[in-house]
C-alpha cells in the first residue's frame, strides 16, 4: 500500500514537470563530468567498507522508486561540514561531517531519499547556476580579469558546476514531499529525516553560536518549518516491513567508530593564519586578517577588503634548473595573449629556497593592480603562487611566499586529528563522564548537540554515545 501511494504521488508530479526538458542523457553527461570534479576537487573518503555501506542503503532506497530514471552511485565526500548533495544523472554524496551526526540508518536513508528525488525530478538541470570560487573578487582591469578566469582558476581548480546549491523553495519542498515516502517505502522510519535536520541545525548553531546561513539541503523553507511539516507527514506514513542493512543500532554505530571528523591533516591544516602540510612537509603564513581556504589543490587567501588574493599550490616535480624555463614560457604567454611583458626576477625566497618570479602591473582599470607569479623549489617539488593586489596589499602578497619553509620535527609531531569514538554509556553516567572515559576533547555543548541529547542527560545504561577524541596524526602509508 505504501508503494502504491508513493507511485501515485510521483506520477501526478511527473506529468506536469517534464515538458520542454532535454533528454535525460544530458543529466548523465553532466553528472559524469561533475562526479569527476567532486572526486578531484573535494575528494572522496578512502574507506571501502563505509562507502559500501552508504551505497547499500542508497541502493535500497532507490530500488523503491516506481519509475526509476537513473542508475545511482553513492559515496562519502571528504568534507568536514555536515552536508549532502546530488549531481545530475544519479551521483549522490554525503559528507563525513554529516555521518558523524547520524543516530540511525533510518536518518541516512531519509537524507538519501531527499537527494534521490532531487535527481529524479532533475532539479539541478532546471536550476543550474554556474559559480566560481573566486567570484567575490572584483578587481578592475582586463588583464586581471583574464588571469582570474584563466591562470588562477587553473591553479586553484575550477569548481564543479552541477552541485545542487541553488534549489528553489518549491524544489526543496518537492524533494522533502517525495523523499520522505520513498524512504518509508524502502522500509525506513519516515520521522528520521525530520530528526536529522533538527539535530544538524542545532549542532551548527552550537558550533557557530549563531543562526546559520542556508547550507545543507539549501534550506529555503526554514529548517523549523521543514521539520514541522516532515513530522506531520511522517504520522501519515507507515514504513514497509524490511530488515535494515545494519542489523541493529550497535552495528550501525560500529560503522561510525574511528570516523575522521575534523580537518584531514593529509590535505593540510589551517590554524589561525598558518597553513601546515605534513604530507608535503611545509608551512606557510598568511597576513593577519586574511581569509584562508584550504582545498585539495591549493591553499587560497583573500584580504578582508577583498582587493588582494593569493593562491599557492603544487605545480609538479622538478629542480631549480627547471624554474627559468617555466618562467620564460609563462612570460611569453603573457606577451602573446595580453601584449604585456613582465619583469623577471631570479633569486631565492627569504627562507633561502630557489625561486623565480614575474611581476606585472595592470593599469587598464580605475587603479593599478599588481600581479605576482612565483615558482619555487622545495624537496624536488615545484610550487606556484599567483597573487593579485593593489598597492596597499602588494607587500603582503610577497610576504606569503617569503614565509614558506619546511616543517620542523617538532611541528610534525604536534599535528593531531579528531576521530569519532563510539562507546556504550554506563548506568547513571553523565555526558561529561562518558567523554572523560573516552578521552574526549570537545565541549559538552558540542557533544550534546552531536548526540541529540541535553548536556544534563543521565544515561540509563547501554545508550550509544559518540565522542570526538584527539589523537596524534599518523600519515597514511
Automatic annotation (TrEMBL):
Which source organism?
Niveibacterium microcysteis
Q: Where is the signal peptide?
A: 1-17
Q: Which residue numbers delimit the Peptidase M48 domain?
A: 49-232
Tell me, what's a Pfam family for it? Peptidase_M48
CDD domains the record matches? M48C_bepA_like
Q: Give GO MF terms, alphabetically.
A: metallopeptidase activity
Q: Can you tell which superkingdom this protein's organism belongs to?
A: Bacteria
InterPro entries membership: Mito/Outer_Membr_Metalloprot, Peptidase_M48
Named cofactor requirement(s) = Zn(2+)
Name the keywords, alphabetized.
Hydrolase, Metal-binding, Metalloprotease, Protease, Signal, Zinc
Q: What is this protein called?
A: M48 family metalloprotease
